[in-house]
Design a protein that fits this description.
Blueprint lengths: L5 H7 L11 H9 L7 E4 L2 E4 L5 H20 L4 E4 L4 E4 L2 E3 L3 E5 L8 E2 L5 E2 L4 E6 L3 H4 L2 H9 L3 E6 L4 E8 L2 E4 L7 E3 L7 E3 H6 L2 H14 L3
Parallel strand pairs: 4-8, 9-10
Antiparallel strand pairs: 1-2, 3-6, 4-5, 6-9, 7-8, 10-11, 11-12, 13-14
Length: 220
């Protein structure tokens, strides 16, 4: 019997499809064998594959949130920020959130990088843009983040023009309520302030001004 090349083995793998129930190991094998797939996630043991992303319902709000997180990270050396990283939460959940904010391991962060460079464990903060994916982001995905110990979870429901910010409290997610000025302040990341109305309206000057105020408050 002749030995098979790695390419032949990959070709013989079943394709990755929506709704497949797989272990994380099998999910990774099929995902890696299909480089044409740009985003697939394993949520509670079930495969979810993203549809093509439109500009206004996803790419534009995604860019706003990442700009906000990126400015915070640039001025906060002990944290890291990433866009759509692979996150191995547990044996049934491997996700690619729209953005993450991590506390560095040497500063007490709860996640680590694997030898392959993937995040293992729960990031401190996860953000998701929920357009057509709102049911998933606020359902099984939210449950997976909660159970795995993601300490804060932000979901921007684009069609509803609503931003939810959840904080893990004794194993359950509770909603952070905006202050009188309409600003939500992170509990985990000092100075990470969000003017919700300004973000929804695309007023990034106001969003970043409020963020700068939050960052300066750390020194008071």
């Amino acid at each position: 019997m002749t030995s098979s090349s790695p390419n032949t083995l990959n070709y013989q793998l079943p394709p990755l499809e929506n709704g497949d129930r797989l272990t994380r190991q099998e999910f990774e094998r099929r995902y890696q064998a299909m480089p044409e797939i740009k985003k697939a996630e394993l949520i509670q043991g079930v495969v979810y594959m993203a549809s093509p992303l439109r500009f206004q319902p996803h790419a534009e709000p995604h860019g706003r949130l990442i700009t906000w997180l990126g400015v915070y990270q640039a001025l906060t050396p002990q944290v890291q920020m990433g866009i759509e990283p692979t996150v191995r939460l547990d044996l049934d959940n491997e996700l690619q959130p729209d953005g993450v904010l991590l506390i560095n391991p040497e500063s007490g962060g709860q996640s680590r990088l694997s030898d392959e460079g993937y995040i293992e464990g729960a990031p401190e903060l996860v953000v998701e843009i929920a357009a057509s994916s709102a049911t998933i982001d606020l359902g099984n995905k939210k449950l997976a983040y909660q159970r795995s110990g993601v300490r804060e979870y932000i979901v921007w429901q684009v069609f509803e023009a609503k931003i939810d910010w959840f904080r893990l409290d004794d194993g359950d997610y509770i909603s952070l309520i905006p202050e009188q000025r309409g600003v939500i302040c992170s509990v985990v990341f000092p100075g990470l302030w969000l003017d919700v109305s300004a973000m929804l309206a695309g007023n990034m000057q106001q969003v970043l001004a409020v963020l700068q105020t939050g960052i300066k408050s750390r020194q008071e």
